Amino acid sequence: MKKLTIAVLLAGTAIAGIPGTASADNDTSAASAGSLCLYQAFNFTSGRACFESGDSDLSNNQYTNGYNVDNRTSSVTNATCKDWVLYDGPGGTGGHYPVFVNERINLWDWDNKASSFYVQSTHC
Ligand SMILES: [Ca+2]
Ligand SMILES: [Ca+2]
Question: Are 4 and 48 members of one domain?
Answer without folding.
Answer: no
